[in-house]
Amino acid sequence: MQAAALPEGGQQPPFHLAEHAAMIPRRQFLTRTALLAAAPLAAAAPARAQDPTLRLVVGYPAGGSSDRVARIVADKLQGALGQPVIVENKVGAGGRISAQYVKNAPASQPMLLLANPAVMVVSPLVVNDVGYDPAKDFVPVSEVNSYVFGVAVSTAVPVKELPHLLAWLRANPAQANIGVPATGSLPHFFALMLGQQAKVSAEAVGYKGSAPLLTDLIGGQVPVAVDTLDSLLPQHEAGKIRILAVSSEQRHPLLPQVATLKEGGVPLAASGWNTVFAPKSMPQAQVDRYAALIQKTMQDADTQRLFRASSLDPVVASPAQTRQRLAAYRQQWEPVIKASGYRP
Predict the structure, then answer these.
(1) Which residues pair with 314 in a beta bridge?
(2) Residues 258, 251: contact at Cβ < 8 Å?
(3) Rounded CA gap, 26 and 56, in Å?
(4) What is the pLDDT of residues 123-152, one digit of tens each?
C-alpha cells in the first residue's frame, strides 16, 4: 500500500480524538483513551526510578547488636522518608568490608554506613592497609546510640563488689584472666584500660564472640569477663553471673543497684557507640537531609523505647556534635590501642 503523502514540513497533522471517535470501534476507542490518559503516569516513571532505595549498610551478621540498631533506625527512617530503606549486611574482616563497600558506592545508589569504633577507630590503627580513611572517605551523619561495658564474674568467684575483685585478682595472679568476646575488640582494649587504672596484672583472653565467653564464665572456666552490658545483662538477671561494675559516668538505669567503676575506686569511664556515616561522595544537601531525619527519628518515643528494650542507650546528635564526640573518643582510645601493640 502506498503511504499517504505528508503535508509541508514533514509532520503528521494533529490527531483530534473527537473527530475520529466515530471512525473506530467502541472497544478500540476506549483502549486508545486509556492509553492517552496513562501517558502522564508513564512519563513520570523515570523520575521515580532515579530515586533508588536507600541502603543502610552494617558490617555484622543479622541478629547481632549492630544489626538490631540498624533495623530500628531503617524502619523508622523509612517512615520519615516515605520510601524503602533496606538494611544490607556486608559481613567480614571485623566490619572493614562494609566500610570499603560504602566508600566505593556509586553516586547513583544512596548508601549510609552504620559503624562502631572497631571499624572507625580500632581497625585504622592496627591494620596496615585498611582500605579506607575514616576522616577522608566518610562524613559523620549522626550518632544513634551508645553502650557501656560491664565487669562480671563467675558465681564461683567469692566476691560481690569491685574492690574485692581487684584484691582477689592481685592475690591470685595465676587466675587473673579476663575474658573478652574477641581480641582486638573494644571490650579487649577496655580490659587493658581497666588493668592499667586498677594496677592489676591481668591477661585478656579473647573468645570468638560473646556466647562462648559467657558459657565459660558461667561454667567457671574464666573467672572474670568484660563485655557490653547488653550481652551480660540477661545472664546477670538469670543469676548465672554477677555484674560488679559498669563503665558509665553514672549508674546505669537498667542496673541502678550496680556501682560504676569510679564508685568502685577505679577512675575510669568509657563507652562505645553506633554512628551513621555517609560516603564523602554524597552531596552535602543529601547528607543534611538524612541527618535531620535521623535526629528526628531518634527523638521519637517509640524509637527510644526499642533501643532501651535492647539494653542500648539512644542518642540524639547533630553532625557537629557527632564530630566532637568522635574526636574525644579517639583521644581517649588511641593511646591504649597503640600501646597494646595489637595486630590482627
Answers:
(1) 145
(2) yes
(3) 51
(4) 999 999 999 999 999 999 999 999 999 999
pTM for this model (two decimals): 0.79
Torsion of CA 75, 76, 82, 83, to 10 degrees: -30
Q: How far apart are CA 131 and CA 39, in angstroms?
A: 48
Torsion of CA 105, 109, 114, 118, to 10 degrees: -10
Q: Which secondary-structure segment (H or E) carries 207?
A: none
Rounded CA-CA distance 67/228 in Å is: 15
Given a cut of 50, whether residue 28 has pLDDT beyond it is no
Q: Can you tell me the distance from the alpha carbon of 125 to that of 339, in angstroms, rounded to the nearest whole number? A: 11
DSSP bridge partners of 58: 89, 114
67: three-class secondary structure by DSSP:
helix
Element (H, E) at 243: strand 241-246
Q: Are strands 111-115 and 54-58 parallel, antiparallel or unpaired?
A: parallel
Rounded to whole angstroms, how far apart are CA atoms 228 and 118?
A: 13
Amino acid at 130: V
184 vs 119, 131, 190, CA distance in Å? Answer: 11, 18, 10
CA–CA dist 151, 224 (Å, integer): 7
The residue whose grid cell reads 497533522 is 13
> DSSP letter at 297?
H
Q: Of 71, 31, 39, 43, which is closest to residue 55 (Cα–Cα)? A: 71
Q: Which residue has the cell 502506498?
A: 2
Q: CA–CA distance from 19 to each of 15, 16, 36, 39 (Å)?
A: 8, 6, 16, 20
